[in-house]
Amino acid sequence: MGPTPPQPPPPHTEDTRVTQLPLPGGAEEYVRDSIHASLGLPVSDRSLRLKLLASEDQRHRLQDHVFSLEEDLRAAQRRIDVLKAEAAMNATGLRRCVEEKEAMAAAYADLSDKSSKECRLYERDLERAMESCDDLARENDDLRARLNQNADLAALMAQVQELQKEKEILKMNLDTAEAEVVTLSEDNRALDEEIKRLLGLLEKERQRRSERKKSASTSTKNKRKSSSLRAGSPAGRALDFGCADSSRHPLSPLPHNSPDYRAHKK
């Protein structure tokens, strides 16, 4: 069935006349195209092109808006990620601060306990020291009373002087003994050198004996050398300690009435 021809407009009468109001440019075309579409009439190419351009423009606007929204979404996601990272860092720092505060509190409690224990120990030691001081003060008073009551103070002074003399004699003997120790050290050093030399000679003698076993032709020569070495070896010479002994001074004798002399005599 083909399109129906347009009907002529009804005659205008006084009853059917309506005041026509002016419409916007686009609205009039939209109303006309809607009427044509409802009646099955073909729509003009110009209207289709305009609608296509309008839809393309709307699509571009919507696409730009979508892109803008996506960019805003990505920026918001980045801000959220940054805020999450900052929150995680803040939480880690806060956790560390809490752990450090807990560790400091535990260390402070330990130090407080140790300080309390040490203070108690110091107080106990102080009490013991005060008691010891009191005991020493009483002993000092007793000794002072005994010294005041002692009538043999002069005898004690004489004994002190004798002890001073014995001290001087012992000091002299100690100096003499130290000098003798130095002399003996030098003698020991000389003995060590002599022993080293003798050991070297003994090693040479052993080497000569081994050579003597290997070569029978040189046995007579080695015997003469060994005999000459024995004759000139310092092993046969005795060390002369008489000079060292003659240079030593005898120790000073102790007084007969000294405590050391009496102890030595017993």
UniProtKB/TrEMBL annotation:
<feature type="region of interest" description="Disordered">
    <location>
        <begin position="1"/>
        <end position="20"/>
    </location>
</feature>
<keyword id="KW-0175">Coiled coil</keyword>
<protein>
    <submittedName>
        <fullName>Uncharacterized protein</fullName>
    </submittedName>
</protein>
<feature type="region of interest" description="Disordered">
    <location>
        <begin position="206"/>
        <end position="266"/>
    </location>
</feature>
<feature type="coiled-coil region">
    <location>
        <begin position="59"/>
        <end position="86"/>
    </location>
</feature>
<feature type="compositionally biased region" description="Pro residues">
    <location>
        <begin position="1"/>
        <end position="11"/>
    </location>
</feature>
